[in-house]
């Protein structure tokens, strides 16, 4: 099997995969097209009438990413015309919000179409994996301040805390001057900053900094008193 791929993020090819710089060139050559993207403003409707018409005659489309990525009505028309041979769809623009709620889609009843209910995360195996992942994420946050995978919160993945430093974690309002005020406190305390990471998400900023152990507690207390600070912790 020949694997072709396109990504907006610079990505190296692995194994026998071939990277394409133009999505439409890839679409025109592929017998099976699978979509693997998050739901963002740029991916909503990214596979619509134009993209479907660029597909190779008799090819298949698989969407297991997000329901808003594909124009379902346009896909149904292309399948009816015979241009697209079939599809496998696990996600939909609108999905049932409760058990027993009826779900309809233009793809129902069409030939060579597989529709699945988007419940892969509810299997016994998936629930075990999710529980393990959440537990590991909590431990990593407590020990390092890691927030990778957080929802609606800045994501940072720092290295382990050095035995020579303490780590300050600070959640603050994402306003101009916040980092300057925090660093000024460190300067006033003659504190060396061994490591510093900052990430923001809308109205919130998240700062991680490794500092000298002898001033870490005083530094934490002063940062916590800033008007911009929401929560300040120390990891020893």
TrEMBL record:
Pfam families per UniProt: 2-Hacid_dh_C (PF02826)
- Say which species the protein is native to: Angomonas deanei
Keywords for this protein: Oxidoreductase
Pathway it acts in?
A: Amino-acid biosynthesis
Under the heading PANTHER family, the entry gives:
FORMATE DEHYDROGENASE 1
Q: Name the chain's protein.
A: D-isomer specific 2-hydroxyacid dehydrogenase, NAD binding domain containing protein, putative
Q: Using the record's annotation, list all stretches that form the D-isomer specific 2-hydroxyacid dehydrogenase NAD-binding domain.
A: 1-120
At the top level of its lineage, which domain of life is listed? Eukaryota
Offer an example of a GO molecular function term for this protein: oxidoreductase activity
């Amino acid at each position: 099997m020949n694997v072709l791929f396109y990504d907006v993020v610079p990505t190296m090819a692995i194994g026998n995969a071939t990277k394409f710089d133009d999505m439409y060139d890839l679409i025109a050559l592929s017998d099976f097209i699978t979509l693997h993207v998050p739901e963002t403003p740029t991916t909503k409707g990214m596979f619509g009438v134009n993209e479907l018409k660029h597909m190779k005659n008799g090819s298949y489309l698989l969407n297991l990413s997000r329901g808003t990525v594909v124009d379902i009505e346009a896909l149904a028309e292309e399948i009816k015309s015979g241009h697209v041979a079939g599809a496998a769809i696990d996600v939909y623009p609108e999905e049932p919000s409760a058990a027993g709620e009826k779900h309809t889609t233009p793809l129902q009843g069409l030939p060579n179409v597989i529709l699945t209910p988007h419940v892969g995360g509810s299997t016994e195996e998936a629930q075990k994996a999710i529980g393990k992942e959440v537990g590991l994420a909590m431990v990593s946050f407590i020990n390092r301040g890691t927030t990778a995978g957080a929802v609606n919160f800045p994501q940072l993945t720092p290295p382990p805390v050095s035995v020579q430093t303490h780590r300050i974690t600070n959640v603050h309002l994402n306003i101009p001057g916040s980092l300057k005020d925090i660093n000024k406190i460190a300067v006033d305390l003659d504190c060396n900053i061994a490591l510093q990471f900052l990430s923001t998400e809308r109205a919130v900023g998240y700062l991680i900094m490794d500092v000298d152990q002898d001033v870490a507690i005083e530094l934490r207390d002063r940062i916590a008193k800033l008007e911009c600070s929401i929560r300040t912790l120390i990891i020893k």
